[in-house]
Amino acid sequence: MTVAGEPTIRQVSEQEVVITVGEREFRIAAECPHRLGRLVHAHVNPRTLRVTCPLHKSVFDLATGCRVAGPVSGDLPVTEVVPEHRPGT
């Protein structure tokens, strides 16, 4: 059972993962741009809105997709889903 406000990560396709933090939802690539770590197993910090790859600990800002720490790599493609564009709303 998920505690209110606790981030959730779910794989929605081979190429995409959805991260939900509170009322916010982000669609990101399923693999880290550094060494293709599977981001469905990532750690999400709900306070800073940062996601950490489980493989080599690259850290990305969910609001921008920019890498903020970890091995040099490209940025992470991120799209924030606004409520009126969510299925079922």
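(ticket continues) Second input and output from the same batch:
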Amino acid sequence: MRLFYAVFLPEEVKRALVEAQERVARYKGWREVAPHHLHVTLLFLGERSEEDLEDLLALGHRLGRLHPPFTARIRGTGYFPNEGTPRVWFAKAEGEGFALLAQRLREGVREFLGEEALLAGGDKPFKPHITLARRKAPAPRVPPVVFGLEWPVTEFALVRSELKPKGPVYTILEKFPLRGDHGREQEESAGKRSQDH
């Protein structure tokens, strides 16, 4: 199974991004990402076995309990690579929670499955983004788009990606609510113990 962890977007944010995608439709050579596929990748895992799935689900639930919800923002667009001929046009995602959650996922995958499981994601610095379009042929750069989007991130997901001739098909295997209640549980447990004495 080809797997990754991701944050998907609420409908109102997707609608705004789809409007931006309409601009790229004017330029031949670009292929827009389907609205229901718009997401922020937290960690790409590549091909994993069925045996790994239980650990990856357990990690998602554990981090959901640890990590509080956070606010995400989208301000503008960019390209990968930034220099030369671009292959990807994306919206820049902001929010301190993205980097922390991605780091915790990397640490957890290393703990559960070992360093080898992180190789598929490469060693490039984590840059949260939402891919809007991919270049399928020589294509011009799309003019920048400025957004003022903001939304609460309250969950993330483990996703299976199946590569098809017309593009990848994503299936959400499980969602993990961000409850961030681990610290509170510890405090309540400590308080209860002190009352018992």
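Agent notes: Residues 182-195 have pLDDT under 50 and may be disordered. The chain has one domain: 2-196. Closing as not reproducible unless the customer responds.
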